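Please fill in the sequence for the structure shown.

STRUCTURE ENCODING:
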């Protein structure tokens, strides 16, 4: 099967499921069912952009309907107009490949990773921090990301820091040999730079006119995502991008393969 267009693939999933789905689930089902082999680096963002753009452009003639924050349904299965989301204005999500401005995407935290494993990073001079938005998506390197990070041991968060003057990769590298070097084995990060569909960071984005409410939203968002309190049912307000899943550094895979070959050779 050749790749369907994104809109066609989204419509096919929603017609098959006959129920409302979050756009992240739609993206994962498109990949699982092979409707698109080429997913790019931001398939979930791409699905969200296609849904929002179609609804904003076609209004009630759109084949999609939004029923809750991030949740959509095929309009043919919308049996009650009261299901439509009316208390949150539609804001068009620009495709990640287009020029991003503060007005178009005023979000602070655009990508993040939770409890990434220190042992899956190859700690060279400035280490690569590799992640994917979902299985089958293209890899993204977050070594040049800026934002907030947390260091964890097996029991708790032991340190919170900023990666601003130095990017995330360099800041984490520093912590492998400073006073915290032997105390952490996991890390979480919350990045300000968005990712485009080609897997590159938009490092020239400008964040302006941040209000006190925005600072509160940032703190709330980071705490919710990193601590995961049981009574919080929502994601932080200033999260645009989604969680990225960590990928093991290829150098580590190579070393493990070489070690296995040596062990097998020694047994001969």
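FILLED IN BY: designer on duty
SEQUENCE:
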């Amino acid at each position: 099967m050749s790749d369907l267009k994104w809109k066609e693939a989204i419509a096919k999933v929603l017609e098959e499921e006959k129920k409302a789905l979050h756009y992240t689930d739609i993206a994962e089902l498109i990949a699982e069912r092979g409707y698109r082999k080429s997913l790019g680096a931001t398939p979930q963002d791409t699905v969200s952009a296609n849904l929002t753009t179609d609804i904003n452009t076609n209004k009630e003639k759109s084949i999609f309907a939004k029923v809750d924050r991030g949740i959509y349904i095929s309009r043919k299965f919308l049996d009650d107009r009261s299901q439509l989301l009316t208390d949150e204005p539609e804001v068009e999500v620009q495709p990640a490949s287009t020029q991003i401005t503060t007005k178009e995407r005023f979000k602070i935290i655009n990508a993040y990773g939770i409890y990434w494993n220190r042992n899956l990073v190859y700690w060279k001079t400035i280490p690569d921090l590799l992640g994917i938005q979902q299985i089958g998506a293209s890899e993204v390197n977050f070594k040049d990301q800026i934002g907030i990070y947390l260091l964890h041991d097996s029991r708790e968060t032991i340190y919170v820091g900023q990666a601003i003057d130095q990017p995330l990769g360099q800041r984490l590298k520093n912590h492998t040999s400073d006073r915290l070097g032997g105390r952490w084995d996991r890390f979480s990060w919350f990045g300000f730079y968005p990712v485009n569909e080609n897997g590159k960071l938009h490092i020239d984005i400008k964040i302006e006119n941040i209000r006190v409410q925005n600072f509160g939203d940032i703190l709330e968002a980071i705490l919710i995502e990193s601590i995961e309190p049981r009574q919080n049912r929502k994601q932080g307000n200033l999260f645009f991008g989604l969680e990225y899943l960590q990928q093991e550094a290829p150098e580590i895979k190579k070393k493990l393969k070489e070690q296995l070959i040596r062990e097998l050779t020694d047994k001969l």
